[in-house]
Amino acid sequence: MLKEFKLPDVGEGLTEADIVAWHVKAGDRVEVNQIIVEIETAKAVVELPSPWDGTVARLLAEEGQTVDVGVPIIAVDVADSPNSSERSAVPAPATGSAPAARETAAQARSDQAPSGKPERQAVLVGYGVKASSTTRRPRKTAPAIAVAAAAPQTPEVPAGTPPPVPAVSAARALAKPPVRRLAKDLGISLAELAGSGPGGSVTRDDVQRAAGDTTVRSVSNVVENGARTGLQERIPVRGIRRHMAAAMVSSAFTAPHVTEFLQVDVTETMAALRRVRDLPEYAGVRVSPLLFAARALLAAVARHPLINSSWDGEAEEIVVKHYVNLGIAVAAERGLIVPNIKDADALTLPGLARSLQVLTETARAGQATPADLAGGTITITNVGVFGVDSGTPILSPGETAILAFGQVKDTPWVVNGQLAVRQACTLSLSFDHRIVDGALGSAVLRDVGSMLEDPIRILAWT
Predict the structure, then answer these.
(1) How far, in Å, CA of 208 to CA of 112, rounded?
(2) d(CA 275, CA 354)
(3) pTM score above 0.85
(4) Is 49 left (phi over 0), alpha (psi -120 to 50) or beta?
(5) Is residue 445 within 8 Å of residue 429, measured between CB atoms?
(6) Which residue from 403, 368, 179, 378 is spatially nearest to 289, judged by alpha carbons?
(7) Distance separating alpha carbons of residues 1 and 55, to the nearest angstrom
(8) 171 pLDDT higher than 90
């Protein structure tokens, strides 16, 4: 019997996803819970398991194609699979995490069937389309399609008529999803490359060398009014980058932003940082100035809870959060994302340091899950790592404040009436002026600055 696996909603009410990489091809045998495809949603890259035992009949979507939730992406022949009707996928509540789904599936495999034999059940995150659970994004307009045309959707065909089979390479080169995406964008065949990475895997450098310096960009000569104006580059805006762009536009034109700046002498904090790095509790942990900035912000939230809130326009209420899911803006390979540390206010300083390290490493590796990216209450962005002094950060949607932490550098400073060289940085706090007035915003920024000037205040105020 031929079964079609439809693209599930992997959490957060998503309506579509891009096919990043297939791990199977037509004719392959698959087992329940075997990873068959990687997809990129507006939130993260997620692995999807097979819902059945059987043989892959055909792939219904190509790599790089954008597919709506509920559209079939693979057909599996389960006719030769014993007890196939008992081993099919069982829908599960959306958890926003593919690893969580696999953990649940593993638990299901350990359960005993009535016959006493182990029964395997695939658990797919949020499988199926929930009626009225989301509002579908408007279709792209003609100009948008002209800029970055989406791959055509698989047309509906009468029952029993096999859809066309997209061309899928039988021999797949080893490469990570971001490298596959780069190769696809540059028109490079991975099968023709000799990988220089571990186990012969193809790396980003391999792809760029194959493309050559002049073809790394998708360029074309541009002529306007008879005059050549130069070269243009067109980058398809999809997945995480598209979500980030839409979220920033929505935030910038919904919440009235106000940004305040404060230059701070952080010499004492930098001295404390060096001492902390030598403590055994921080062995194996990269401790940066961001750790103290994050702890200072958490302490400021405890002193001024209204800064950790959101605006409910429909109910005309301010929702104050008495917990802190601290968002950290990360420049990942697929675009800017803001994963958050859940209940960061309840962590010790060593625990916060480890959480910061794990969060940033996971995000930069492209492994942040939808659950990691959801539920943030206040955000900090470390622009100092780019050698930048300050900026006017845009609020993460649904949040009231975001703190930008600038680079720490030697600065002329007046100390006790004498000019001295001190280590200083600039803080900037953007906040939603519907909720936070100038007095509260200034108090929060001043508190953060005071704790970074004298880290003993962090102990005194928490």
Answers:
(1) 51
(2) 17
(3) no
(4) beta
(5) yes
(6) 403
(7) 10
(8) no
Backbone angles phi, psi at 123, to 5 degrees: -115, 110
d(CA 290, CA 296): 10
- Reported as a single tens digit per residue, the pLDDT across 23-66 is 999 989 999 889 999 888 766 778 899 999 999 999 999 888 88
What pLDDT, on a 0 to 100 scale, did the predictor assign at position 105? 41
DSSP class of residue 201 equals: P
Query: For the chain, which domains are there?
Result: 2-148 (2.40.50.100), 169-221 (4.10.320.10), 240-460 (3.30.559.10)
Q: Is residue 41 a contact partner of residue 373, using CB atoms and an 8 Å limit?
A: no
Q: What Cα–Cα distance (Å) separates residue 227 from each residue in 52, 147, 455?
A: 59, 22, 60
* DSSP one-letter code for 88: S
Q: Is there a contact between 62 and 74 (Cβ–Cβ < 8 Å)?
A: no
User: 76, 36 in Cβ contact below 8 A?
Assistant: no
Task: Establish whether 304 is a catalytic residue.
Answer: no
Asked if pLDDT for residue 208 goes beyond 60, the answer is yes
Can you read off the two tokens belonging to residue 115?
């016959």
The pair of structure tokens assigned to 55 is 């043989």
Strand 309-312 vs strand 317-320: parallel, antiparallel, or unpaired?
Answer: antiparallel
Terminal Cα distance for the chain, rounded:
63
> Scanning the structure block, which residue is given the tokens 């949020």?
126
The rounded distance, in Å, linking the Cα atoms of 88 and 121 is 7
Strand order in the sheet with 66-68: 45-49, 35-40, 16-22, 66-68
Residues paired with 340 in a beta bridge:
327
Residue found under tokens 């002094």: 389
**Rounded CA gap, 403 and 326, in Å?**
11
* 343 and 325 Cβ atoms separated by less than 8 Å: yes
Mean pLDDT of 241-250: 76
